[in-house]
Amino acid sequence: MEQNKIIVAIDGYSSSGKSSMAKWLASRIGYRYIDSGAMYRAVTLFAMDNGMIDSNGNVDAEALGNEVDAIEIDFAIMPDGQHTLLNGADVERQIRSLEVSQHVSPVAAIPMIRKSLTRRQKEFGQQKGIVMDGRDIGTTVFPHAEMKVFVTATPETRARRRLRELEDKGMKADYESVLANVIDRDHIDETRAESPLRKAADAVVLDNSDMTPAMQQEWLLNLFNTIVCCKK
Ligand code: DC
Predict the structure, then answer these.
(1) CA of 104 relative to ligand 1 center, distance in Å
(2) pLDDT average per 10 residues of sequence, the chain (232 residues)
(3) What is the pLDDT of residues 36-45, one digit of tens each?
(4) Which atom of ligand 1 is nearest to the CA of 136?
C-alpha cells in the first residue's frame, strides 16, 4: 500500500557493494533507486570538462559552487540499467572512470556542492518509496529514514571488486592504484568537515567481506520485511 512506503538509506564505504545491494532491493520491492554518488561524480565530470580542476587536482571551489545549481543531473532507465545524465547527455561511462574517481572526493567535500545535491536528493524522497545509497543519506539527507544500513568490507576486498568492475567495463587499471584510491577516498570521506562518512546511530551495520551477493540480498530483504511489517 502506498502509505506504507518507506525511505531506505544505504550508506557505506566506496566499492562496498552498496550500490548493487540498493539497486537489487529497489527493483525487488518496486521502489525508485537513486545513486547519490553518481550525482557527485557528474558534478566532478562537469568541473573537469570546464577547466575547474587543475593538473595538481586542485578544484576551483568558488567557480564550481557558483555553477552547481545550474547543472542538470537526471537519471534515465536504459536496457542495461540506470544511466546518469549531465545536462541531458548520457555520462554513465565517463563518471565511472578512474580519473573521475580520483577527483570526486575533493569535489564532494565542498560545502556549496553538498548543499545543492542534498537539496535535490531530499526532493527525490518526497514521495517515499525510494532506496538511496551514498555516504550521508542516513545522517544528513534522510535522518528520519525508516530503514538505514551501513555497509562495510575490508579495503582489499573493495579494491578487488572495483578492479573487476573496471575490467568488466573494458577499462584498464592495476590493483595497487585501485587500492590506493579506495584508501585515499575513505580517508577524505571520513575526515571532511561537511557531512563526513559515518554510521548513523540507528543504522544496521553489514560487513559483507565474506558474503555472496545472494546472502546480502537475503539479509537486506529480511531487514526490509521486518521494518515494513512492524510499521503497519
Ligand atoms: O559511491 P561512489 O563511490 O560512487 O561515490 C563517489 C564519491 O562521492 C565518493 O568519494 C564520496 C562522495 N559521496 C558523498 O560524499 N556523499 C554521498 N551521499 C555520495 C557520494
Answers:
(1) 7
(2) 82 91 96 96 98 96 97 93 96 93 92 97 94 96 97 95 88 92 89 89 95 96 93 65
(3) 999 999 999 9
(4) 18
Q: How far does residue 30's CA lie from ligand 1's centre (Å)? A: 24
Q: Are 91 and 42 in contact (CB under 8 A)?
A: yes
pLDDT digits (tens, 9 = 90+) for 180-202: 999 998 998 899 888 888 899 99
The sheet with strand 81-86 has its strands ordered as 73-78, 81-86, 89-90
Closest-lying ligand 1 atom to the alpha carbon of residue 18: 1
Q: Is 31 exposed, middle or buried (0-12, 13-18, 19+ CB in 10 A)?
A: buried
